UniProtKB/TrEMBL annotation, chains A, B:
Coiled coil: none annotated. GO terms for molecular function: DNA binding. PANTHER family: HTH-TYPE TRANSCRIPTIONAL REPRESSOR NEMR (PTHR47506:SF6), TRANSCRIPTIONAL REGULATORY PROTEIN (PTHR47506). Residues 34-53 bind DNA. This is TetR/AcrR family transcriptional regulator. Keywords: DNA-binding, Repressor, Transcription, Transcription regulation.
Length: 195, 195
């Protein structure tokens, strides 16, 4: 049975806010989106909006969490390395979200930023999941056994973060194609790979 | 003969401001540095400070230009690929500047940001210079002739940008060591290399 009453209403409202925020930010970018405007989009005052999340930073964190979940569900690639490439390809359609992610994560580099712990946890988790995907490919004989899974995971995350920033200023290649090329090079370096 | 008069004084004051800004931002980070504070550090009002640069964005652009010049002069590595690695290693000592660069470049991804053209030009120039360094290594027989210099340059920039963001949240490896490893792997992939 589904939850009822004020709690369920709160959950539904949070969902509504996140959906609206994803749409508004994707359309007009992080820099131009104020919490006032997000509040207006869901018929709330700014204080009313922040009541659901605690702070502007927690709202943006929730937007990024919702986006990560949507991205993982959206793509049917067999493993996380394939999904990462599909996500990078999809990102060129939502520059506003790329901007939110790039700017907010850079700001949160400051250890005193309220969302610093969120990114510490997110990067550690993503790195571990990608390292698992590398190990699975190594077991399947499709990725060089000489590669260090943690190092490859770190490189893939850095590359996708960096390519997203760089692509905003014009790139000679498609970021997703470039990621695929690099995965191929790293996967075949220093060890025999079945083909 | 050196320039004299009001023009030379203006140039000297700009230099003084940039030196102070580099120091303050390196120490306390981009997020916590206000133009008001930078103005106070050089004995100017906020309006007086911005008079020398036109806007807050143009001031930060000038800080990043000054930092790029200082970095290129600081290291004696034989080529730009070596310098890039040395710069990445040096960056762990100046997290505030890394934060300025990461956050400001991410914000400037918006085509309407006043510093968007600066980054378009900076990335294009850096990519071309790194591609030249790859070509020089290929001519010298120390980098795989199968590699596309523009692609390698794009990968190296993305990796260093991405590693700088990621390193703020904890990394299992030193960014500079990782860059060196990846240069080695890319440089030996798909073609014979003299050793």
């Amino acid at each position: 049975m589904a939850a009822r009453g004020p709690y369920a209403k709160g959950v539904a409202k949070r969902e509504e806010i996140l959906t609206a925020a994803l749409e508004v930010i994707a359309r007009q970018g992080y820099r131009k989106t104020s919490t006032k405007e997000l509040a207006a989009a869901v018929g709330l005052s700014e204080a009313g909006l922040l009541h659901y999340f605690g702070s502007k930073e927690k709202l943006f964190e929730a937007v990024l969490r919702a986006r990560d979940e949507a991205d993982v569900d959206r793509f049917e690639e067999s493993d996380l390395i394939g999904k990462l490439t599909a996500i990078i390809r999809h990102n060129s359609d939502v520059p506003g979200l790329v901007q939110l992610y790039s700017t907010f994560s850079a700001e949160a580099g400051d250890p005193q930023h309220p969302s610093h712990p969120y990114f510490v946890e997110r990067y550690a988790r993503l790195r571990e999941s990608l390292a698992d995907a590398v190990r699975a490919r190594q077991s399947a004989g499709t990725f060089s056994p000489a590669a260090d899974p943690e190092v490859i995971a770190t490189v893939l995350i850095a590359l996708s973060d960096g390519l997203q920033v760089q692509s905003q200023f014009g790139l000679p290649v498609e970021p997703a194609d470039l990621l695929t090329q690099v995965v191929g090079l790293l996967g075949s370096a220093g060890g025999a790979v079945d083909s």
